[in-house]
Amino acid sequence: MDYGFLSILPPILAIVLAIATRQVIVSLLVAVWLGATILHASPIDGFFRTIDTYILESAADPWYAAILIFTMIIAGTLGLVTKAGGAQAIANALASKVKNARGGMLAAWLMGMIIFFDDYSSCIIAGNTARPITDAVKISREKLSYIIDSTAAPIATVALISTWIGFELGIIGEGFAAIGMDNVPVYLIFLQSIPYRFYSIFAIALVLILAITMKDYGPMYKAEVRARTEGKLLRDGAEPLSATDTEVLQPAEGTPLRWYNFVIPVLVIIIATFVGLYVAGGGAEVGLMAAFGDADSSVVLLWSSSLGALVTLIMVLIQRIVPLQEAIDTIINGAKSVFPALIILVFAWALSYISGELGAADYLINLVERTGISIVVLPLLIFLISCFMAFAMGTSWGVMGIVTPLAIPIAAAIGGEAFLVPVLAAVLTGAIFGDHCSPLSDTTILSSTGAGSDHIDHVRTQIPYALTGAVVAGVFGFIPAGLGVHPLISIVLGIVVLIVFVKLVGKTTADAESIAASKK
Q1: Which end of the chain, N or C, is less packed with Cβ atoms under 10 Å?
Q2: Burial of 56 (0-12, 13-18, 19+ CB in 10 A)
Q3: Among 130-134, 147-151, 332-336, 359-363, where is mean pLDDT lowest?
Q4: Which residues lie below 8 Å from residue 139, measured CB to CB, with a gap of 6+?
Q5: Half-sphere exposure of 347 (CA within 13 A, CB side)
Q6: What residues contact 97, with CB distance under 8 A and at least 6 apart?
């Protein structure tokens, strides 16, 4: 059945309600119920199918279940690391080198860039590591969550080795197979598409520009003024998704602060992830790149996080920092801290399930096919559609998997082989826009969790920055791409535009800090 505009009504409702009410869980639940009501033509049937089909099957999916368990294990491990004083030791060491807010932002940006191999790991590990540092130099939690979010999916999708590679290579092959090109070198095409990933590149660059210039604009500026002048890292009444900085997880007085109680568990998780991806993907038999692409990253993340938890527990017990029962209780308390985020994740996945059942993607793509557009504007149009769909659905992989096999044939029919890579990149990086800033996105939720930020505050303050990157990517990236301009020219031009824009529109908190100081 063709539901037409009704197919995109549930995700639109979810976003409008989430932003208007700041009640993400309720907004998602209402949107899923609306979608189920449309599908089953009954609000009563819609209610029961919401519970026993869309929510239940989303939570029971092996991939999603693995992500839920991984998140709890990581949160529990980091809770124990914090209780053991390891996180505080690192924070103290880095804080001694980070003298100001600029240094704190650059440190957070660098941590996110270093953990490039998986966006989920980046959100949780980089967020919890950077948070004590940014707190010490009065950087708002909204700003930290933005930095973490901007160095999670945007860098993972263009990294040469990451948990995204297998999926991306798969959909690239599927897209080219749709036009009869079954034996294309998909990894080479993946590499060729990287310079055209304009949004991902500009999102990463914008964080660095903001940190160096110390300028902000929009709601983020107000958040930074509040943090600098009042010392309030969160607004009054905020409800941070993470509770890992609560008193129950803080080290007891007299706990020895040893840096290796943080570094070793984190290195174990990182190394185990790399080794696990290599082994699970076939190892030496298929080669490094193919192994990373073929591995089931959800299972590997379970392996690495569980090993990290075990190593942390053994280290804490050997050093007699806390007794066994307290260590177990701490792990459980750490896992509890992400429970609200997990509820949001399940409901967001259920909404994505509903959107697929309603045919939201087909509806949007059909609109494009009926317009008879020119190849000059096709990369821009595909980019905008991917942005909107990812923002509405909260899933980048879903958008990539749905749109790529449809966009490639359109590009081949209108412009020929020369435009296949730019259009492919438009889908892949446009999908990152939604993964980066949608209130329904798992990465956005985990960024709020890792940074200890109120989720809707994170979304509201980040959207102007995400839109800035999207506009620059569209105007100075994909419009020139449609005209055949080399992508490196667009990258240089886009970064220059971002620098000029921030200098002209952005404001520093210096004046506000001076006024606040004079009143004391």
Answers
A1: C
A2: middle
A3: 359-363
A4: 101, 104, 105, 108, 224, 227, 233
A5: 26
A6: 103
Average confidence (pLDDT) over 488-506: 97
Rounded to 5 degrees, φ, ψ at 370 are -85, -10
How far is Cα 475 from Cα 463, in angstroms, rounded to an integer? 18
Are the C-beta atoms of residues 120 and 71 closer than 8 Å to each other? yes
Average pLDDT on 245-267 reads 77
Interval 210-215 mean pLDDT: 96
CA nearest 452: which of 131, 94, 101, 105?
Answer: 131
Q: How far apart are CA 329 and CA 308, in angstroms?
A: 17
Q: Check if the beta carbon of residue 114 is closer than 8 Å to that of residue 207.
A: no
Whether the CB-CB separation of 458 and 350 falls below 8 Å is answered with no
Is residue 471 over pLDDT 90?
yes
What are the angstrom distances between the C-alpha of 24 and each of 332, 343, 345, 390?
Answer: 25, 10, 10, 17
DSSP 508: -
Taking 3-state DSSP, the helix, strand and coil percentages for the chain, each rounded to the nearest 5, stand at 80, 0, 20
Report which DSSP code applies to 251.
P
Q: pLDDT value at position 244?
A: 46
Answer with the residue of higher pLDDT: 16 or 379: 379
240: β partners:
454
CA dihedral 296, 299, 300, 303 (to 10 degrees): -170
pLDDT (0 to 100) of residue 69: 87
**How many angstroms separate the Cα of 238 from the Cα of each of 275, 336, 458?**
40, 19, 11
Q: What's 483's DSSP letter?
A: T
User: What phi and psi, each to the nearest 5 degrees, are found at residue 216?
Assistant: -145, 165
Interatomic CA distance for residues 125 and 147, integer angstroms:
13
And the tokens for 157? 């999708």
Sequence-separated (6 or more) residues with CB below 8 Å from residue 216: 143, 210, 224, 506, 507, 508, 509
Q: Is pLDDT of 245 > 60? A: no
**Distance separating alpha carbons of residues 360 and 8, to the nearest angstrom:** 5
**What integer pLDDT is reported at residue 50 of this predicted model?**
93
Question: Which DSSP letter does residue 127 get?
Answer: H
Q: Residues 271-307, buried b or exposed e (16+ Cβ, 10 A)? A: ebbeebbbebbeeeeeeeebbbbbbbbbbbbbbbbbb
CA–CA distance from 358 to each of 37, 44, 141 (Å)? 11, 18, 37
Which of 339, 274, 325 is closest to 80 using CA atoms? 325
Inter-helix orientation angle 297-318/260-280, to 10°: 150
Confidence tier at 248 by pLDDT (50, 70, 90): low
Close Cβ partners of 352 (under 8 Å, ≥ 6 residues apart): 58, 393, 394, 395, 398, 440
